[in-house]
Amino acid sequence: MQIRGRVLSVASECVPFIKTGGLADVVGALPSALAGAGWETRVLIPAYRALRGHLAAMEEVWHEGALFGGDGRVYFGRIDGVDLYLLDAPHLYDRDGGPYSGPGGDWWDNPQRFAALSWVGARMAREGVSGWKPDVLHAHDWQAGFAPAYLAYHGAGGVKSVLTIHNIAFQGWANVGLLSDLRLPREQFHPGALEYFGNLSSLKAGLVTADWITTVSPTYAEELMRPAFGMGLEGVIAARRDRVSGILNGVDTAVWSPEAEEPAFSVKTLSGKAKARAALSAEFGVDVPGPLAIVVSRLTDQKGIDLLPLVIPDFVAAGGGLIVLGSGDPALEGAMRALAARHPGRVAVRIGYDEGLSHRLFSGADAVLVPSRFEPCGLTQMYGLRYGTLPVVAATGGLADTVISASPATLAAGVATGITFYPTDALAFGQALSKLLALHADAKAWAQTQKNAMRHPVGWETSAAAYADLFAGLVR
Ligand code: ADP
Q: Which ligand 1 atom minimizes the distance to the CA of 325?
């Protein structure tokens, strides 16, 4: 494949090296997906304590004196299939704890820690490293938000910048007193540029300076321009609406593959799924004549978990069943336990995080419920599609962009893949579950919908092509 261009991806997380959320999956999946579309991608992340073991096998390619209180050195190597730059700055990253917080909460110097990452990323992009010069700097979330700003204010050297929002809730707040420490120009401290409610936000800095802004679904891209979703940044994003787009995440179809499960199944041989359902019913003691639904989720307000106790009693009375796997808010964990206690043999709950169980749940269940209040992209509805476990989702963000709701029209056209509802409240959710019961009772329509779902493409190919086209358009 001919190389169309080069990308330096700047981020705080990357699978398989460091992960606290979906951001890491995206940063880790893009290099090989983009390679297939002609874009050579290298990833820059901090050398956190747990990653310093890799340095010995890497080559030192960059030295940065005076990097917010100490030296920074960048090492390069191909590790686990990723062309990886590690920024080693022990005074900033060689610590016990997570990437953003230690035992006492968030690291006090997070503004400097991620300004350092952004500063080095911007310089490497502008000047090139050992003859490798990117055409595009791809910054991810607030942790890399200053990188487009450094390119804009200190010289871009012909490099275009793209900022991707994975989660607008984290905005990289920093005190205004840090303005010059963080190497930001004082004359840009006004509401049209760096100023954010009297202080600084690295995410806002990126949003006002990047050549392009993306987020992880087209619907979320539109929602972010509205107060209910933008979390204070809606006006900033709306002001740049002609430079904002949404590109859906993909899922790793090698890891999420019904053919690789035990028992295995596929769109052609669904008998394995029936066996998986029987095993799941036995494992959880949930045996129902109607649809067996699952929830695999963080138990938080965002995910609409509080609605389950309001809608599930009617659902189980009509023959449905539910298995919940998740952890999070203690009050919601308690509510899930109480729901299971009230409906023995119909509802079961497992509090915790369990990848293996999650695979068994998607294999054996009939439907996955995702009643989120907002959802930038969402992954579990895509696992549901792939496993013929029909998604019942709130029509928001990436959920709205990945599920085609069953209706007389979509069933007649043979394109339905699940059920969507709006708004995220108990009335609409309850009506969606009634639709699920009716669809399940119509064996022909159910089988057709399941097939449509399993044939829906959820891999990275489409998304990688969209990123590749975006990059190509910017550098043209
Ligand atoms: P978010 O990133 O907001 O939590 P996503 O749907 O984008 O939501 O991704 C969540 C990921 O975490 C999915 O891969 C989901 O299967 C997984 N997950 C969430 N909770 C659990 C759990 N308790 N056990 C196993 N996997 C879980």
A: 23
